Amino acid sequence: MSKTRTKAHPVVSVVTLGCKLNQADSETIARQLAGEGVQVVDRAVKGADAFVINTCSVTHVADRKARHAVRLARRLSPNAQVVLTGCYAETAPADVALITGADFVARNAEKPLIPERILEKLRLSGDPAAGCGVAESSGRTRAFVKIQEGCSEMCAFCIVPYTRGREITVPMEAVVREVKARESEGYLEVVLTGTQLGNVGRDLGWPRAEQGPLRLLTQLLEATTIPRIRLSSLQAQDMHPELLDLWQDARLCPHFHLPLQSGSDPVLDRMRRHYTADEFRRAAALIRERVPGASITTDVIAGFPGETEGDFEATARLCEEIGFAQMHNFPYSRRPHTGADKLAGHLPPPVRRERLERLLDIGRRSSERFRLAQVGETVPVLWEQQSGNLWQGLTPNYVRAYTSGETDTHETGLGNTIRHVRLTGVYADGLTGALQSEHS
Ligand code: F3S
Questions:
Q1: Tens of pLDDT, residues 41-73
Q2: Exposed e or buried b for every residue in 241-271, given b needs 16+ CB within 10 A?
Q3: Mean pLDDT of 414-437
Q4: How high is the mean pLDDT of the chain?
Q5: Which residues does ligand 1 sit against, CB inside 6 Å?
Q6: How far is the CA of 58 from the centre of ligand 1 (A)?
Q7: Tell me: the pLDDT tens digits for 257-273?
Q8: Whose CA is nearest to atom 6 of ligand 1?
């Protein structure tokens, strides 16, 4: 999505909250609008002609952010059309439009209607450029490609099956077509996105459905030439040697996001997760054995109902032991309709908060250790953007790299290129690096 504005075309802000599924949906909406001559920006801007607020509802904080985003849009541009969509549109009270000031509420299944709805309004308001078909070039370097919608797992804490419905696999030919399309637009990386990627193909009755990701990735590696393919997440139970051996192809990014949620078996059982702490431990060991240098990142919930101090200690120990490259830690948030909502033993907020702090501390330390261990290595980075005099981008194993962008030949302008750096030290949330000359 473009980051600069000229008022020759109507401007639409597409604001995305939540997960990579939402990012994939927003990119589809943005692409369609841009193809109709609309200038799309990926943040709320003053004076925009319309806003799409693509929301999340995974916690009550996410709900609050959704309401805030709609009000902000209203304030920034009082006469603009404001569309509220995404998971909060599924869980919000019926009068959410009234409460927030949105003009139109589109449920997840109604997202495909949004571009036309906006264009219609822009045409009605007499904006001559709407619908003239001037495509915008994208300023992004990674494209999110949705390979699955929904979730059929019913984890006790999670609202996603209620907001997105049951799992639906995107047909393989459509995924290949989309990856090729992004490749021809100049993207160097696609992120394959869904909630339970290990289950792809299960709803379509693929033979040996437990090997859906193996089948899809094999096909993508054969049928496309995009330099990088990344998976948004997998589960511990999806890890098996045959799948991991695909990562011998360097086009697959060695980054595994495996949500742990808890390191205590009784809690995992009450969460309705499909692995034990030991099975998770073995999955992480298998990744390290088969994909050297891979990063393992995770999500952990602090203070699930009934979590004892002993349960929490087991989680903390497992996190220390595994040494995650990044941890996304959340205090348990009570969601209506979910299994956990009905469980006994909801913990008071200060207990959840205190456990969260301990997880955050473990996460900070293990992330720094993981990054420090890579200092001295030379790695390819997909460079994204420049801020101040620093370029930043991502290594294949999902570490943010920073460089001044200067080599001995003083080359600049790294955006959307893959260039090597020698990693020199820990910096902010990532690592600094010295850009290597193409010929070194
Ligand atoms: Fe949030 Fe919906 Fe994603 S609840 S995490 S935006 S599936």
A1: 999 999 999 999 999 999 999 999 999 999 999
A2: eebbebbeeebbbbbbbbbbbbbbbebbebb
A3: 95
A4: 92
A5: 18-19, 21-22, 56-58, 86-87, 159-160, 163-164
A6: 6
A7: 999 999 999 999 999 99
A8: 56
